[in-house]
């Protein structure tokens, strides 16, 4: 089931100070651009309008994909950081990927 917009501010967003919700100019421009419903149309054929598991809101997905591209974030970078110790057994490396220390790259 396709969801285009989220339900509104989350509990986390409601407790943040107003200063934390202000975006830099570049991100504010992109945010305004991505509010256009035309960006949701390519996703419609892949989702049933009423049946199935609900998707994440497409407005959230689009913004996350922009941030991933803009700042070079991704799974590959996380793997490089977490596999820096070649003698670590594989299961331990996988568990390490979920720890905060792996996000230092």
Folded structure, characterized:
It is a single chain. With 105 residues, this protein is mainly α. It has two domains: 73 residues, no CATH class; 32 residues, no CATH class. The protein is built from five helices and no strands. It is globular and about 45 Å long. The C terminus is likely disordered.
List the helices and strands and how they pair.
Blueprint: H1 11-15, H2 25-34, H3 58-71, H4 75-82, H5 90-96
Head-to-tail CA distance between termini:
36 Å
Indicate the radius of gyration in whole angstroms.
18 Å
The average pLDDT value, as a whole number, equals 77
Inertia-based shape: globular
Low-confidence stretches: 100-105
Report the count of strand segments: 0
Number of helices: 5
Strand content: under 5%
The percent range for helix content is 40-55%
> What are the secondary-structure elements, in order, as H or E?
HHHHH
Compact summary:
With 105 residues, the chain is mainly alpha-helical. The protein has five helices and no strands.
């Amino acid at each position: 089931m396709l969801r285009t917009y989220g339900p509104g501010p989350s509990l986390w967003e409601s407790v943040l100070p107003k200063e934390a919700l202000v975006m830099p100019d570049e991100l504010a421009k992109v945010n305004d651009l991505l509010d256009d419903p035309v960006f949701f149309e390519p996703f419609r054929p892949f989702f049933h309008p009423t049946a199935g598991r609900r998707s994440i809101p497409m407005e959230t997905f689009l913004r996350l994909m922009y941030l991933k591209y803009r700042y070079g974030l991704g799974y590959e970078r996380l793997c490089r950081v977490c596999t820096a110790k070649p003698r670590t057994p594989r299961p331990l490396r996988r568990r390490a990927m979920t720890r905060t220390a792996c996000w230092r790259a």
